[in-house]
Amino acid sequence: MKEIIGVYAGIFNATLDEYLMHRLDCPSPVKDAVAYAMTGGGKRLRPMLCYLGAEFAGKSCEEVSDFALAVELIHGYSLIHDDLPCMDNDTLRRGKPTTHVKFGEAVALLAGDAMLNSAFEVLFETVNSSKDVLAASYIAKYAGTTGMIGGQCMDITDNNGEGYDETALLSMYSKKTSGLLIAALLSGAVSCGCNKEEEVDLINFADYLGVAYQITDDILDCTSTEEVLGKNVGSDEKSDKKTYVAMFGMDNAVKKAKDYTQRAVACIAKYGERAEKLIGLCHYLVGRNY
Amino acid sequence: MKEIIGVYAGIFNATLDEYLMHRLDCPSPVKDAVAYAMTGGGKRLRPMLCYLGAEFAGKSCEEVSDFALAVELIHGYSLIHDDLPCMDNDTLRRGKPTTHVKFGEAVALLAGDAMLNSAFEVLFETVNSSKDVLAASYIAKYAGTTGMIGGQCMDITDNNGEGYDETALLSMYSKKTSGLLIAALLSGAVSCGCNKEEEVDLINFADYLGVAYQITDDILDCTSTEEVLGKNVGSDEKSDKKTYVAMFGMDNAVKKAKDYTQRAVACIAKYGERAEKLIGLCHYLVGRNY
């Protein structure tokens, strides 16, 4: 699966290079900050999900390259803003200083704004059917206040943990982390013509996958090193953040991640060969150690 | 003109209230911060331009209410992020504490992100023709790195003023301030079917208007009071910002604002009655003292 991930990442990186070279018209140093934040690593999980959504619907990656680009720009902006001193105050990301450490807070803030806005510029340039508009609207929705931003809102305001139970934590993970995975997979599949039943199955798959992925992140934050992960570790504990590991212990976290992986797979197993890569990716991500 | 502005603001405020009550689904306190930032004053200049764009093209305000909402959400997010400590560090806006002073920086940052994202959610909900998609794409473009964000990038990186001349300053104003005025007017007119020649004339009109408006802002920052403006004054001087007044003196600023007002009017005078309100608004804004 690692090789397959590499192939899709290569496809995405070509799209990204072309975007940074020829499409993104932006004054420096903000442009440099965008390029810095968008390059130099990352599994490109969200673009891959978008591509696999297209393949699930019988089309190819090329059909959805702008949807993949838009989702990854949104992911990138969310990392820049999340790392800022007023948020998580992280200094290391993908083995490099975070964007505000490298370029200053003002440039990092604007770079994030530029990436979010640019994602929608890309989408408006690419949509040319009602299917495309629906696919793009899903990206906006799952990136927004009922999706990723909504999860971030819950994350920053529930740190005291009062009245915070497993349901609330899983709901926050579902918005914060699953949100963009759903956006990626769904936009790829919907713009390529999947039907309503498939839509629902893909949403549920990506939702369970996102929660399992986030719990795995929590586990790695406790068990891995900065060298392996390329980002600050132990920061969840430091900032007294509510995580699955902190609230329910390591054993339960491992169990829950496996349970949600199985639930994810169960949503799409019926599609047989069409779902093979998605299922492989799911198992790989929860078993990862980086 | 003041009464007419009030009427259009009333139309917009009804749309905004409905949005805040029934459409914006967002966890508190970020939702409260969005409501705080979006209500309690403002001329609603951008929504009015959007409405006047629709009327210019022979349609009514109701046709473009979501375009007006999207542009004003983008304006609102830009003010929140601009006021943050790492940017202008302003504490007063429309006579109230700025959003980060009231809610803290993390909530203000997320509220701004939520508003920008929500603007595009609103647009994707409303577009249902190729004219609409084009109109929405103009909003994304003029709000982005070749428009408003591009102007902000220039603004934060050219503070030392080296090699900074009138052309560079006016280009920054054209992006930073005219950008969203163009987005507002153009989206209203284009979604209601104006033709290409009219598009160009409206872009040029709003571009000159925006620069004249920004120079008037510079003048008021030097001559007016916090009580009248409802925001920090003298902050341009304090932060050693390059403004037209600081670079070329008060007399030249007054002359330039008048010159650009005349240029704006000249772009659309040929449309006679169809352009009357736009021309009236233009004269009013440059003559304002608040």
Structural notes for this entry:
The structure is a homodimer of 290-residue chains. By secondary structure, chain A is mainly alpha-helical. The first copy, chain A, has one domain (2-287): Farnesyl Diphosphate Synthase (Orthogonal Bundle). The first copy, chain A, is 73% helix and 1% strand. Chain A has helices spanning 2-23, 30-38, 45-56, 65-83, 99-103, 105-126, 130-143, 148-157, 166-191, 196-223, 226-229, 235-238, 244-268, 276-287; strands spanning 92-93, 96-97. In chain A, strands 1-2 form a two-stranded antiparallel sheet. In chain A, a hairpin with a 2-residue loop joins strand 1 (92-93) and strand 2. In chain A, helix 7 (130-143) packs antiparallel against helix 9 (166-191) and helix 10 runs antiparallel to helix 13. The longest helix of chain A has 28 residues, at 196-223. The radius of gyration of chain A is 18 Å and the shape is globular. Chain A starts with a helix and ends with a helix. The model of chain A has no long low-confidence stretch (mean pLDDT 93). Chains A and B meet through helix 6, helix 7 and helix 8 of A and helix 6, helix 7 and helix 8 of B.
How are the SSEs placed, and which strands pair?
The structure is a homodimer of 290-residue chains.
Chain A: H1 2-23, H2 30-38, H3 45-56, H4 65-83, E1 92-93, E2 96-97, H5 99-103, H6 105-126, H7 130-143, H8 148-157, H9 166-191, H10 196-223, H11 226-229, H12 235-238, H13 244-268, H14 276-287
Antiparallel strand pairs in A: 1-2
Helix pairs in contact in A: 1-3, 2-6, 3-4, 3-9, 4-6, 4-7, 4-9, 7-9, 8-9, 9-10, 10-13, 10-14, 13-14
